Amino acid sequence: MSTHFKDPLNPNIDAWSECGEQSNGSNPNNEYAGLSVEDRSLLEKRRIDSNNQDAVVARALESSALKGIFGSDLSRRSFIRRVGVGTAAALVAQFFPFSSLQAMAEDARKNIEKKKLKIGFVPITCATPIVVGHALGFYQKYGLDVEIIKTAGWAVSRDNCLNGNYDGSHLLFPMPQAMSLELGSSGAPWRIVSNVNTNGQAIVLGNQHRDKRDPKTWKGMRFAVPFEYSMHNFLLRMYVAEAGLDPDRDIQIRVVPPPEMVANLRAENVDGYLAPDPFCQRAVFDGVGFIHKLTMELWNQHPCCVFSTSERFISENPNTFIALSMAVLEATAMAELPENRAAFADAMAPRNYLNQPPEVLRQILTGIFPDGLGDVRRVPDRISFMPFPSQSMSIWVLSQMKRWGYIEEDINYQDTSREICLSSKTEELMRGLQKENSEIAWSDLPEEEHPVLDIHGKRFDPTDVDGYLSTFDIRRDG
């Protein structure tokens, strides 16, 4: 076996340069010692094929997938010896359907303008497709060398985007809109490419408030949200306003970076928060809070975080943009499959990614979790990965910016949304991936551009925003 080709499905070699059993590379038969005839034959065929460039790319992706699943050579070798090379290959294939996607991957690799990219992410479970895309080699598959950069909070992410330090980023759904409209800071045209998750948030209260399950009793309480331009802020405002409380006068809402949420709850600096996981489940895990309500109970399959990049990046790097978008979309599709959830949780647990106990991430991604009130809940869609950013979602966010006074002037909601939210382009890419990969079956592509939504018991017609806003008594828009 050539020194540059280390087959990750060979249990007798170290693929990741760890100490242990390893052949000297001079005699392939030594590397197959102790293996069955079937496994020897399969590995020898793979060795012969290793001069093919597509096979080299596939082996690199398999290696990334196995490292994300097993973490060490010792665990990988032990597993392959137990189940055999063929079974191990089938396991990797559930993450990478190489045979059906190699042609598309080859097309995406052609004429890439910029291969080395920096992508920001905040360490929350909403970032699963961004993180798993890195851990399991989806970017590499499309010919990209992506560095994902863990970022402490959303203001830092925004500034790195606007300063040109990031080529793209995991952002909150309202952030590209705020950045494009120059709300809250200087701005630049940023675009929503795809949702990286839907649902996945909760309202958490400190344990001292177990008797305050009715939001009407929350007057004077202090709540945290991760950013002003966030679904968390807008969903919390909607929820308390429907209970008759003015979110600007009857409660306090303060911005706290997600990694600091649990500590602030423990110190009773806040009474609760509407935040992303893992920090909702982590409050339960640490015994400092309980889950009052999952946000999917307010709006099922609501958007939260997106993959976003600038209009400038898209215009200067059109082929790179397509390859990068396809990598993120494919990772999103794989994250949605229930059979992948536990493995993805383990892949994201290490310090360089989310730095969380694997059991906490499994509780979130599988939807089987203790709620802090003595019950174990089973909610498979606690977090979902529905990538299509519909115009209706986008317009609802703009309507809330208007409702709460972030947007002061009158705007054309539909035109503004079409400019910022790239629904048509994303639909084209999604349908292309679905055509090439039978494992992908998107369920979130609407039949019309502006579907009517059911949001917290109210009908939202995105073609009549003013009519929708007129139904609310508590608002700041006039």
Question: Could you walk me through the main structural features you see in this protein, from its secondary elements to its overall organization?
Answer:
This protein has 478 residues and is of the alpha/beta class. The protein folds into three domains: 1-96, no CATH class; 107-197 and 304-358 and 385-469, Periplasmic binding protein-like II (D-Maltodextrin-Binding Protein, domain 2, 3-Layer(aba) Sandwich), CATH 3.40.190; 201-302, D-Maltodextrin-Binding Protein, domain 2, CATH 3.40.190. It is built from 21 helices and 16 strands. It has helices at 28-31, 37-48, 53-70, 73-83, 85-95, 98-109, 128-135, 138-141, 154-162, 174-180, 231-242, 261-266, 279-285, 311-316, 318-336, 341-348, 358-366, 391-403, 413-420, 423-436, 465-469; strands spanning 116-121, 145-150, 168-172, 190-195, 198-199, 201-206, 222-225, 252-255, 272-276, 289-294, 305-310, 368-370, 376-378, 383-384, 453-455, 458-460. A five-stranded mixed sheet has the order 2-1-3-11-4, sandwiched between helices. The chain has a five-stranded mixed sheet with strand order 8-7-9-6-10, sandwiched between helices. Strands 5-14 form a two-stranded antiparallel sheet. β12 and β13 form a beta hairpin. α15 (318-336) packs across α20 (423-436) and α18 (391-403) crosses α19 (413-420). The longest helix has 19 residues, at 318-336. The protein starts with 27 loop residues before the first helix and ends in a 9-residue tail after the last helix. The model is unreliable at 18-28 (pLDDT under 50).
